[in-house]
Amino acid sequence: MTVLSVPFAGALRRPVRNRYVAGLLTWRGVSGLALVGLVALAGLLAPVLSGADPNAQGPEALAGPSGAHPLGTDDLGRDLLSRVLHGIGTDLTIILTAVPAGAVAGAALALLAGTSRAADLVVQRLFDLVLSFPGLILGLAVTAVLGPGRWPVVIVIALAEVPYFGRQLRAGVLVQREREYALAARVGGAGRARVLLRHVLPNAVDPLVVQGAVALSVGVFIEGALSFLGLGVRPPEPTLGSLISGAVAYLDTAPLLAAAPLGVTAALVLGFTLIAESLNRGVRG
Amino acid sequence: MTGQVGAEVLRVRGLSVAFGGRAVVRGVDFALGAGESLGIVGESGSGKSTTALALLRMLPGGGEITGGSVELAGQDLAALPEPALRAVRGRRIAMIFQDPMSSLNPVLTVGRQLDEALRAHGGRRPRAERAARAVELLDLVGIPGAAERLGDFPHQFSGGQRQRIMIALALAHDAEVLVADEPTTALDPTVQRQILRLLARINRERGTALVVISHDLGVIAETCSRLLVMRDGEVLEQGPVQLLLTDPQHPYTQALLAAVPRLEAPSRAAANSTPGREPLLVVRGLAKHYGPRRRRTTALDSVDLELHPGETLGLVGESGSGKSTLARALVGVHAPSAGEVLLRGEPLGRAGARPDVQLVFQDPYSSLNPRLTVGQIVAEPLIAHRLGDRAQRRARVAQLLEQVGLEASAAERSPREFSGGQRQRIGIARALAPEPSVLVCDEPVSALDVSVQAQVIELLARLQRELGLAVLFIAHDLAVVRQVSHRIAVLHQGRIVESGPADRVVTAPEHPYTASLLAAVPTLPTTTGSLL
Question: Is A1 on the interface with B (CB under 8 A)?
Fold first, then answer.
């Protein structure tokens, strides 16, 4: 009876339905969206912004910025601007495939864990197993089996994210299914699956949205790391990670070669992190 | 009850508080003399707790004092800088809160927490002296074997003892004013009475001025000499408790008093509906144990009950008596360890297997899924039992909402948009959806304000009359239970210790436990104007 927030809850928090939107409409959310949006737009418009073929080699290797090559060329004379822009496209495709796949797989496993104690035990140990491998070892293991390429990168990122999504949702499920409305649904005659999917899941899903934004930034990292080690997308197709990797040898002579993809990567990670934080604040209200 | 009233210690003038520009306390005035006791009563949203917190400027985020003053011995606390105010908090004005479970730090021993309270405010006394003082404080609040218990952790104490420890902490610096915000709301009636007596004794013997905030007039009548009635952030009237409770001037105080269920009032159940002959629901030897065999705890121990159509059986018991376990066993959520539940002679299956027994919950906030609309919530049992198609369900939901006194258009809205009482109506509509013959109500009104309580009770009575429902009404408030029930059963430590006609159980209890429950009910003066 002395819950102070209750009398004002209706007055102050009216647009409850749009907590995500409300979170995104803060300075954090807007600057995050702007950063990610700008980078994504540049990636989408790659063919328009730069006429050069990203994989066409030219005679001028390691040239500085010029009219024909606004950011200069790399060691094989390829246009750097074009490679960075196309690299954005590759990166975004990979993480936007891998993160939702990881989220769905993690959520499915968490719901499975919610059905019985035995299933919970199995799923939990499965998560522990994946988490016990440092990300890079996991990447090495997967690529050792599948070989380097685009899909192994997607699989590594998805796999690395599964336990995080799964654990988040499992914790939410454990809390929400003890709430009285879940009990009310059972008394009303709803079966186990219906209680879980219709009542518990929608109330436990908030943290996953935030986790999703975090995972996108982690995805950029993992792609970069794998490409850096030469385990990522096969050359000559450009990715941000492989561009940085290739630039390391020329750090003192052509710093722009590393700086351009690094800047874009940093912008993406920062953008996703800002979005995650703004969503988090929005959801917590 | 009344302490020695000395010089004025606290004077509040025109105190106003706003949250995000919205005024929630407007121009509150009162004065408190040394050793005096003041009760502030009001329903939820009246601003009584906000007033208490504003005294020490401890308002939660977004709240600010927008006007007025709080003078402690002539010094305005509302204008004091924060560091100077910290020296007042806990030392000159101390507070105790509603929930003794969460107000103590679970990982520190009680002795350590008392020691920290004693060391605060620069009380540089030797360790041994502080320990002696801690024992003295625990002794004062009535913790048996105080010296041995300093090394114990909060979880090793009962709820009532924890509230006593909170009071001991508050008394560490001999504060001039003790503010108690709903000090007994989370406690059982018998424990409540002990705590109220303790507060009254401290007020009387130590001359500590006392401010008690409560929604319960009975609680204030037991501890305070003066009463202040609040509604919508304003003080409606104030004066001596005896006078205000017997001859209230303001219509709101009169209505509030009239809405409080009186233990002396006879049961109204017989006038409402006549129970059928044949028992509808029969519970035989129901038992529920938890934990492994060797260290098992018994929540229910061989419970026998009969419930007839059109009958209300009141089930009374304190926390831990097994009330909620019984409710959940009846609707099939808990599988009983032994015994059976028969409906019309047939065993009742698992939860939701049959729509005949439905449950109404205590907490109207957590029992409605916030992600669904009211219409979806009420339709859930219909979908689960495959009753009707989409159009039929919609019509049934509209009918149910009107039946519980809401508009059919409520179906499109979110449960968040409704007040506590309206939410409880939604919960009742949901329970009625699959046309049950038995309604199990687990503390259906204890989270509601008294005026709303009366409306929900009226609704349940009307539904019973119209639908011939059998109702198991579980509650801890004996006055409410007597009012609504044909028969009362008393549950104590998992056993039914007494059962019988409602009026008989209240007026002539046979079991000593029932008698102690009855004795613990705070009483209000009844005769209007007799003191004048």
Answer: yes
Residue type, position B37, single letter: S
- Paired tokens of B82: 């924060």
State which residues form the domain around B390. Answer: 368-435
Reading phi first (left if > 0) and then psi (alpha if -120 to 50, else beta), residue B449 is in beta
Tell which B residues from 86 to 115 touch A, by Cβ distance under 8 Å: 97-98
> B105 in a domain, yes or no?
no
Query: Helical H runs in A55-79?
Result: none
Q: Quick one: B318 and B445 in the same domain?
A: yes
Sorting pLDDT into bands at 50, 70 and 90, what band is B309? very high
List the B470-475 sheet strands across, edge first.
B357-360, B438-442, B470-475, B312-316, B487-492, B495-501
Q: Supply B280's token pair.
A: 């509808």
Spatial CA neighbour of B432 closest among B492, B387, B477, B490: B387
Residue B160, in any domain of the structure: no
Taking only residues 147 to 186 of chain A, the set having a beta carbon closer than 8 angstroms to any beta carbon of chain B reads: 179-186
Q: Are A260 and A244 in contact (CB under 8 A)?
A: no
This complex has an ipTM of: 0.75
Q: How far is CA B147 from CA A73, B18, B152, B199, B495, in A?
A: 82, 45, 10, 22, 35
Q: For residue A102, what are the β-bridge partners? A: none
Length of chain A counted residue by residue? 285
A14 has a chain B CB within 8 A of its CB: no
pLDDT of B199 over the 70 cut: yes
> Are A184 and B430 within 8 A, CB to CB?
yes
Lowest mean pLDDT of B5-9, B311-315, B318-322, name the range: B5-9
Choose one of B418, B435, B452: the last residue of a domain: B435
**CATH no. of A20-55+78-284:** 1.10.3720.10
CB atoms within 10 A of CB B73: 12
At residue A28, does pLDDT exceed 80? yes
Q: Which of B301, B218, B334, B312 is nearest to B268 (CA)?
A: B312
Same domain, B448 and B481: yes
Predicted structure pTM score = 0.79
The candidate with the shortest Cα–Cα distance to B89, out of B206, B173, B180, B202, is: B173
Local structure of A157: helix, strand or coil: helix
Chains A, B: CB pairs < 8 Å = 108
Any CB–CB contact under 8 A between B430 and chain A?
Answer: yes
- Residue B58: CB atoms within 10 A of its CB come to 12
- What SS3 state is found at B280? coil
- Identify the DSSP state of A99: H
Cβ-Cβ contacts under 8 Å for A261 (sequence gap 6 or more): A84, A87, A240, A243, A244, A247
Q: Cα A135 to chain center, whole Å? A: 14
Same domain (yes/no): B394, B474: no
Question: Buried b vs exposed e over B26-42: b needs ≥16 C-beta within 10 Å?
Answer: bebebebbbbbbbbbbb
Higher pLDDT, B303 or B349: B303
**Torsion angle of alpha carbons A194, A14, B403, B316, nearest 10°?**
80
- Please tell me whether residues B301 and B445 are part of one structural domain: yes
Cβ(A219)–Cβ(A95) under 8 Å?
yes
Does residue B68 sit within a domain? yes
